[in-house]
């Protein structure tokens, strides 16, 4: 509430107060000073409020709790706490290989609502599907999960580059011809269908 | 001229109302932590505020037009 969002809300409330003044007394723009005040209240401040709101919403959409606040994404959020290191997202989340508060964004930057314009539009389409259309039973990443998401961090890392299995297929991995997650190597991902049969881990346990 | 002033005031009132409404929706979207809040902000709040700003700019055009009309009327009737 406090912090940047609190400051933005205070700015919005201030803008509303000044705009209400012009709503009640629209004739008060006789002097140049009043004209400038009207320009600030009905143009400059609203533009600032929209800019601030856009920035806040964009930052917010990077957060893990934003993604899993959607009903369909809740099981994927649960899968981050599976007590089994073969679950790739859980191992990354629990060992802070990705920032815990931006875990979804770290591995799905081209999939989440935040990102380039195309991805934002995809995010909006998913909101539409969830609330207006018919949500699919199983959620798939459009076009499959790209190795580039993994390689963004792992490429150049010694443990990755010097692994003999990786070395043998490095070209196929980097050209995305062989998927990291479906080639029988790192194929245990979220597995939300099995969540009722696994043990969970939480910080402090 | 009087009619123009009334039109200007009406436009300014509409503009203020749209902006106040849009800002209210923006506050709701900021207090609600949910993907729908993003849609609410992007489609409803932004559209209302943008419409308010456009109406305000239209009212400014009204002022300029009224001033121009007034000046040309004075020129035609007074100084000749």
Explained architecture:
The complex is a heterodimer of chains A (205) and B (80). Chain A is an all-alpha fold. Chain A folds into two domains: 4-60, no CATH class; 64-197, Orthogonal Bundle (Multiheme cytochrome fold), CATH 1.10.3820. Chain A has eleven helices and no strands. In chain A, α1 runs antiparallel to α2 (32-60). The longest helix of chain A has 29 residues, at 32-60. With 80 residues, chain B is mainly alpha-helical. Chain B has one domain (2-68). Helix content of chain B is 91%, strand content 0%. Chain B has two helices and no strands. Chain B has helices spanning 2-31, 35-77. The interface between A and B is large, with 36 and 36 residues.
Q: Can you identify the CATH class of the largest domain in chain A?
A: Mainly Alpha
Give the helix level of chain B as a range of percent: over 70%
Shape of chain A: elongated
Secondary-structure content class of chain A: mainly alpha
Q: What is the CATH topology descriptor of the largest domain in chain A?
A: Multiheme cytochrome fold
Q: Which descriptor suits the 3D outline of chain B?
A: rod-shaped
Cα gyration radius of chain A (Å) = 24 Å
Q: What is the number of domains of chain B?
A: 1
CATH architecture of the largest domain in chain A: Orthogonal Bundle
Beta-strand level of the residues of chain B, as a percent range?
Answer: under 5%
Observed structural traits:
heterodimer, A: 205 residues, mainly alpha, 0% strand, elongated, B: 80 residues, 2 helices
Summary of the model, kept short:
The complex is a heterodimer of chains A (205) and B (80). Chain A has 205 residues and is mainly α. Helix content of chain A is 53%, strand content 0%.
Blueprint of the fold:
The complex is a heterodimer of chains A (205) and B (80).
Chain A: H1 4-24, H2 32-60, H3 64-67, H4 74-78, H5 88-94, H6 103-107, H7 117-131, H8 147-154, H9 158-161, H10 164-168, H11 170-174
Helix pairs in contact in A: 1-2
Chain B: H1 2-31, H2 35-77
């Amino acid at each position: 509430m406090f912090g940047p969002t609190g400051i933005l809300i205070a700015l919005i409330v201030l803008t509303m107060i000044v705009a209400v003044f012009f709503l009640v007394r629209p004739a008060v723009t006789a002097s140049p000073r009043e004209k400038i005040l009207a320009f600030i209240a009905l143009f400059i401040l609203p533009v600032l409020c929209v800019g601030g709101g856009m920035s806040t919403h964009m930052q917010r959409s990077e957060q893990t709790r934003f993604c899993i606040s959607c009903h369909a994404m809740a099981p994927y959020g649960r899968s981050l706490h599976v007590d089994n290191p073969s679950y790739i997202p859980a191992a990354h989340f629990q060992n802070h290989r990705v920032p815990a508060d931006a875990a979804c964004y770290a591995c799905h930057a081209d999939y989440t609502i935040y990102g380039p314009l195309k991805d934002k539009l995809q995010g909006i389409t998913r909101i539409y599907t969830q609330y207006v259309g018919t949500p699919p039973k199983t959620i798939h990443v459009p076009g499959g999960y790209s190795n580039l998401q993994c390689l963004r961090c792992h490429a150049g890392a010694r443990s990755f580059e010097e692994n003999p299995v990786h070395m043998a297929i490095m070209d196929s991995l980097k050209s995305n011809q062989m998927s990291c997650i479906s080639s029988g190597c790192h194929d245990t991902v979220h597995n939300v269908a099995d969540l009722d049969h696994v043990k969970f881990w939480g910080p402090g346990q | 001229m009087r009619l123009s002033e009334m039109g200007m005031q009406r436009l300014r009132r509409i503009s203020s109302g749209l902006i106040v409404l849009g800002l209210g929706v923006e506050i709701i979207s900021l207090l609600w932590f949910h993907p729908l809040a993003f849609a609410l902000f992007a489609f409803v709040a932004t559209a209302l505020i943008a419409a308010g700003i456009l109406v305000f700019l239209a009212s400014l055009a009204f002022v300029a037009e009224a001033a121009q009309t007034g000046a040309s009327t004075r020129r035609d009737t007074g100084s000749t």
